[in-house]
Each structure stands twice: as structure tokens, then as C-alpha cells.
From TrEMBL:
It comes from the Bacteria. Belongs to the glucosamine/galactosamine-6-phosphate isomerase family. NagB subfamily. PROSITE patterns: GLC_GALNAC_ISOMERASE. Catalyzes the reversible isomerization-deamination of glucosamine 6-phosphate (GlcN6P) to form fructose 6-phosphate (Fru6P) and ammonium ion. The lineage of its organism: Bacteria, Bacillati, Bacillota, Bacilli, Bacillales. Residues 18-228 form the Glucosamine/galactosamine-6-phosphate isomerase domain. InterPro entries: Glc/Gal-6P_isomerase (IPR006148), Glucosamine6P_isomerase (IPR004547), Glucosamine6P_isomerase_CS (IPR018321), NagB/RpiA_transferase-like (IPR037171). Transmembrane segments: none annotated. Keywords: Carbohydrate metabolism, Hydrolase. Pathway: Amino-sugar metabolism; N-acetylneuraminate degradation; D-fructose 6-phosphate from N-acetylneuraminate: step 5/5. This is Glucosamine-6-phosphate deaminase. The keyword Hydrolase applies. Pfam families: Glucosamine_iso (PF01182). It comes from Lysinibacillus parviboronicapiens. The active site is at residues 71, 140, 142, 147.
Length: 241
């Protein structure tokens, strides 16, 4: 299989953030009413900071942008300090000219989670589909919260989090036992539907996952590997052993 994946190696987290911010800046300049797919975690924080600076300098605007986040924990209130809703507001939305009604995250606190999953994919489709999707990667190759073994045809769904993912994400909670056991996440197919994808990964912890992706083997045991079948993916990565 020949993949068209574009690889950009960087020397620092800041460089990764700037290169990723450049891709988002170009997207917003080319299409001010872009539909962006956004991610949480430590990886995108620097890129969000950079985009905030650029928006505040008047270089870009989010006035007509709509965003869809990849995932959210099940059972947390939006206002919980550890929710992805809070993360996104603190790191990006509160500091740029986004309209609150244009912000979407899956809601993990509804009674009918199955209906919310279907509705989330519908909302993305109604908006016209995601133009540019940002991804991080879990050490086990998860994207969004799609853990190893997830079907490549999955749409937005409810997942059981693996112990490794719960441990990785425990830093955002006062007590590791508070990390929810389930999440609602866009599926692999929902992610693949995006017109373009940027995946960012920096640091020793992520090297193994990046090497695995580079090896070119596509398998459901390594969720990110399906990206090799997408026509427009850029991987921005770096870090030393
Ligand atoms: N659900 C998120 C993922 O979307 C993210 O990519 C991953 C890596 O996070 P980090 O960037 O902090 O390493 O963490 C969580 O599991």
C-alpha cells in the first residue's frame, strides 16, 4: 500500500505547535467559515495558545467557525474542571472570538447516550462535514478515545477506557479513581470522514506509537493506522529517545 501521509519532523514542542497553527491559519484564511475538528490533551495546548495569539493580533478570526470536539467523558458535568468542555473553553474558546452556539462537544451527561452518539454524527454532517481535524495519539495508538480493537467502521460511540488510558489521563483529576471508566467519542469512520487531518505528537512517550504508524501496517489493533488510508493526513512529530 502506498500512503500519501505527509511527515513533518520537528525539534521541539513549540515548533510542533507553530507548524500545526500554520496549517490551521491557512485553513481559516482559505475558508473563514471552516468546520474544525478539535482535540484535547497536552499535545494541542501549545497550538491553541498560538492560535489565540494570532486571533488577538487580528491575523485570523473564529467568528464564522464551527468546531466539533472528538470526545468527552461519560458522567461528567460540562462545568466539571476535568471535562473536555472546560478544557476547550480554558485553552481556546474563552480567548478567541468564537460564538458559543458554534461550539460542539459530545455530551456525556445525557440519559440517552446512544441517541447522543447518532445525533453527534448527524450534527457534523448537517454542518457540512469537518474540513480540518486535529488529532493527538495515545501511547497505545488510540485516536479520540478509540482504543485498540475498535472497528474501523465505527461512528460516534460509547467506549470503555483502558487502564493505560485512564492512567495517562489521571493527571487531570484530583484522585486517579475519579477518572471516568467510559467516554463518548467520534468513531474511526467519523474521523476518516474529515477532509484533512493533522496529527501531532511530541516526546519520548509517543515515539513508539509514531514508529508503529511509520511502519505502515494497517490493523484495528492500532487505531491510528487507519489514517494511512486517508488521502490528506499530516503528521507533525518529534522528540528524542
Ligand atoms: N482522548 C484524548 C485523546 O484525544 C488524546 O489524543 C490523548 C493523548 O493526549 P496527550 O496529548 O495529553 O498525550 O489523550 C486522550 O486520551
Amino acid at each position: 500500500m502506498t500512503s500519501t501521509m505527509k511527515w513533518i519532523e520537528v525539534n521541539s514542542y513549540d515548533e510542533m505547535s507553530a507548524v500545526a497553527a500554520n496549517i490551521f491559519t491557512e485553513q481559516l484564511k482559505a475558508k473563514p467559515a471552516s468546520i474544525l475538528g478539535l482535540a484535547t490533551g497536552g499535545s494541542p495546548v501549545g497550538m491553541y495558545k498560538e492560535l489565540v495569539k494570532r486571533q488577538q493580533a487580528g491575523d485570523i478570526t473564529f467568528k464564522n467557525v464551527k468546531t466539533f470536539n472528538l470526545d468527552e467523558y461519560v458522567g461528567l458535568d460540562q462545568s466539571s474542571p476535568a471535562s473536555y468542555w472546560t478544557f476547550m473553553h480554558e485553552n481556546l474558546f474563552n480567548h478567541v472570538d468564537m460564538k458559543e452556539e458554534n461550539i460542539q462537544l459530545p455530551n456525556g451527561k445525557v440519559d440517552d447516550l446512544a441517541a447522543e452518539c447518532v445525533a453527534y454524527d448527524d450534527r457534523i454532517a448537517e454542518a457540512g462535514g469537518i474540513d480540518l481535524q486535529l488529532l493527538g495519539i495515545g501511547v497505545n495508538g488510540h485516536i479520540g478515545f478509540n482504543e485498540p480493537g475498535t472497528s474501523f467502521t465505527s461512528l460516534t460511540n460509547i467506549v470503555e477506557l483502558t487502564e493505560s488510558t485512564r492512567t495517562e489521563n489521571a493527571i487531570y483529576f484530583d484522585d486517579p479513581a475519579d477518572v471516568p471508566t467510559q467516554a463518548i467519542t467520534m468513531g474511526i469512520q467519523s474521523i476518516m470522514n474529515a477532509k484533512a487531518i493533522v496529527l501531532i505528537a511530541f516526546g519520548e512517550k509517543k515515539l513508539e506509537a509514531i514508529e508503529k504508524l511509520k511502519s505502515g501496517v494497517v490493523t484495528e489493533d492500532f487505531p491510528a493506522s487507519q489514517l494511512l488510508n486517508h488521502p490528506n493526513v499530516t503528521i507533525i512529530y518529534g522528540g528524542t529517545k
